[in-house]
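Fig. S4 source data, part A: sequence.
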Amino acid sequence: MSAIRFPHARLRQASEALAATLGFGQPADQVLEVYFKTHRGMGARDRRECAAVVYGALRHRRRLEHALDAAGIADHGASALIGAWSRLEGGWDAATLAAAGWEHDAFALHAIDPATLPFATRWSLPDWLAERLQAQYGAEADALAAALLEQAPVDLRANALRTTREALAEKLRAVDIESTPTAQAGAGLRLIKRATLSGLPEFKRGLFELQDEGSQLIGELLAPTGGERVLDLCAGAGGKSLHLAALMGDRGTVWACDVDPRRLGRAKLRITRSGATCIATRELSGLDDGWLAEQRGTFDAVLVDAPCSGSGTLRRNPDLKWRPCGLAGLVATQQRLLETALALAKPGGRVVYATCSLLGEENEAVVEACGVAPEATLELAPHRDGCDGFYAARIKA
């Protein structure tokens, strides 16, 4: 971080952005997007550096708070956290931090050996999540927690309706973006080095979507075929619906449904860019929506990408660690969603229940509570598989 230009400005900007994030009104990526739009004088490098510091402070928040306490600094606000991260994780020496105008005693901050800290503090986790990971993963818990502190890789899914994975890799290489095929997902590429992609002609022409390898494997588990009638019950911004359409060769129908009109609006833009014509979108009022009642028993395949704790995505969404989770409420919703999906599928049809959670109570326990036995399951974790954490179960209706 010592190479950052005008560190006093970066400290202030990152503190302002983190303060907005810690309000938990929106996800961190959306907060930063708004912040950068209202600070148009920041160049591309400025934005990258600011985002890196904010995400770093979010990832390491609990350990940073411990270091602040050890230095006799009771303030755990945004500016204090940004300064602590810059000093202890970002490479600033105490003199640089002091010269940048940090309001606390930079020379009192010292690194603490993580091995001496309790599990939750060492890996910057809230107690409720730390306890569950230790209980569920046992000897693997440290490796998993360490992986959750890393920065997630950038994975792409080549849009089979417009290109191939090999052709996309060549196009990216032509603009000095190197990639390697994902180990498990058939259409995926993983970037060797992070790069800005949204301005590329290949992105604007719909040749690829940003999608974690684990997320891509969920669509493959549902395995839709051309001509089928498929429901994406919690489609959100449409990433998995787009993949399903590509797997189907744009033949048949994919109904992308969600209760959030803003997310469906983003899905419509992505659908247009992808060139898929088999996707229809529908806003739902809830699981009691009249349209859903009319569709009972009519779908060949149903995907339930259920709302969850997001614990498998903490590498890219570290702010989730510090948001209220409401786990019991999530589990109740998950069970109801799976029951609804089973009723919507044809007899003999396929249902995939999926979450981006690492917790058994959101995963296997939900399937068991619904009284069904999966014919296939998928369990992914970043320390083992190098992708986000996901669970998915394919069930015969």
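Fig. S4 source data, part B ends here. Residues 327-344 form the longest helix (18 residues).
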